[in-house]
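Sequence in, structure out.
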Amino acid sequence: MSTVTYTGILLALVATTAYNVGLIQEKRALGQLPALDLRRVLHVIGSLMTSRAWLAGFALMLTGLACQTIALTFEPVSVVQPVLASGVVLVLVLSRLVLRERLHGGETWCVAAIAVSVVLLAMSSTGAKDSHHASPGWVAAVMVPTAVVGLAFALAALRGRRRGSTVGGVWAGVGTGLLYGVAALAIKALSGILVGHQTMADIAIGVISSPYLYVLGGSLAVAMLLFQAALQAGRASIVVPVSNVTGSVYFIIAGTLLFHEHLPASPGKLVLRLAGIALAVLVLVVLGRQAPEPVPADPALAGGQPLAEQLAEMRR
């Protein structure tokens, strides 16, 4: 394994650690904020921007995204993305230790299966280099419908009786995962500018003039707002893994096709990759068909507010 490979994998590990620790910090901060009403976007943004705890989590997430962009300049999608997706294990550990969340019944097995699917995808990586360039027409043809479907899923999950339930968390995770997958494709496309230009001035001009920068910004902004609402209403141990594995599987499939990465030549690795994708899809279907188990919509209750504070508020 070359030095470049080690560097890319190390950056991917830093990226997934910073990103997922930031998510847990955001979840804790959301527990102290009023319920996010997406019909009042400016009010939601104001609430988030005035929370120091939430901003700290958001800064960690941005650090993770920056490391992800750099890592993708060293390694192909099939190497970097499984490492990034392994952050689901960290989320599960932290959600139990920090947020005191518990999984019930079949949820435990489903989330464990998500972790297994991530391992299978990681084992299927070939280490072969891929292209940093893709046809803009094909990229648009993939990104636009994906963004529309993701937006529809997330909005439907955050409305009515589904909000805060296990099923609502699953579909909100699928919707935001697709939107984050679109953002990941834009990041991969932008990483080509870092490879194709020599000077900082050329890189800056190339990034600013690239439509992928604005696709990245738009998809991340929408995904973030929807994800924050889902994270506040539901459990991180459901919303985060589902969103993570959805985005990962989508990115691996779409990125492999758009950036001309070859499927594993080894039959064993090909079987591992297909099995990982199939298992992830099966888990999402099973979780999505579970009977709704409402979670308290009050963000203070959903975010793990101490019991004494909850009782004091009830007495008031």
